[in-house]
Write the structure tokens for this entry.
Amino acid sequence: MNNNYKCGLYIRLSKEDEIKNNTDSESVSNQKELLVKYSKDNNYNVYDIYIDDGYTGTNFNRPGFNKMIEDIKNNKINMVIVKDLSRLGRDYIETGKYIEKWFPENNVRFISILDNIDTLLDNSNNEFIPFKTIINDFYSRENSKKIKAALRTKQLNGKWVGGCTPFGYMTDPKDKNHLIINKEEATIVKRIFDMALSTYSINKIINVLNEEKIKTPALFRNIKKNTLGCWNRTTIKTILKNELYTGNLVQNRRNKINYKIRKLKLNKKDDWIIIKNTHEKIIDEKDFEEVNRLLKLNGNTKSNKKNKTILDGVLYCGECKKKLIIQKNKNKKYLMCNTYKKYSKLKLCSSHSNNYLNVEKNVLSQLKKELDKIDINLLYKKIRINNKNNNTKELNIKIENNKNNLDNLYLDKLNNKIDEEMFNRLFIKINNEIDLLKKEISNYSYKPIDIKEEVVNSLININNNQFINKLIKRIEIHQDKTLDIYFNFKMI
């Protein structure tokens, strides 16, 4: 009977598991050895082994897991074996849904060896799956709190706990939590501050560094984000505003939203942790304050609020593929390649100077011709669905809040704060609300209406930038003034 199963062995090891466990018990090689032996002993046919090394269990955005799910959908495997439930995941809601709903719906047998769980069998251990997943989730929550507390303690003690060190510094080979000066980089940092103190504008500093072919921080550290290899305003301002160069350690500027969401949020300045004189300074504190006073002064004198045009955000250079900017000269608007404007002396691109109004008329004319060829209502529906994430942020927040309420509900039940009847009633109520919110997002309300006239009027109305951005992905304009328009609705 076992030969009827095409088995997928799933292995996961997070960085936290590696750090926390002194033994090799959770290692990839140990898990693999255990799963392979179990499969052989039970005469299971192993189709593939799926490994996620260094991935957290608090979410399911993992390449190995996603590949396994695709293989299930394509009927390549119909059995999943893990070492224990925590290897599958530590988010109790999502883990439970896969084991109790998704796997059964897709005819997948699930086995957790150390938990003695087998969804094919009428096994009493299967009844404890919800409680074990809660414990695994609780472990992640508590582990996250401990890690945060440990990091905060180090920050308060003036220890560096960041990732990439600021340009001009490196970690001390003798103490990874201490910064020391990188002399080659620090020389450039000092020069940037000296030029700023000499009232050089940021653009002038950029020109000097680029003309002298001074390497950027990205090039110094072999980070290939800046493909042009040129200095820009963001890099210069980041350096000039970083108090760390005065010898003060500034940390806790941002934090993860919670232990399940890796996205970072900015903290208020009052929540920053600033410890004085933790490392050797590159810039004198008085010079730093003077530079930032000048930056603030220059920033206040510029009221550079441009009039928004309907093509803002979609105009690109046909040669370097960077953005085109819209400038105003004697009440006339014209286009210019941003690369050319920033690095004109380096001749990285040409000006691409073009009359904006002529381009706008040309684009609207071509857009109207394309719209005449398609079903406008279908187009409008597709645009709204493709952009639903921009309009469902509040719904997703409500879903996340309800999931947190479920977390607390399970804990209340485990701590005997609520009885079984109240738990079941609240559990059903919260889950129903989550399902309704998800349905609202997936269905994304759309009422078919005759909007052909509305579309045309919107195109004539010069103020409808948002609508144009939904219709047009990008417009590339070449030096010879020809243009290529990439529509968002070509596949309709």
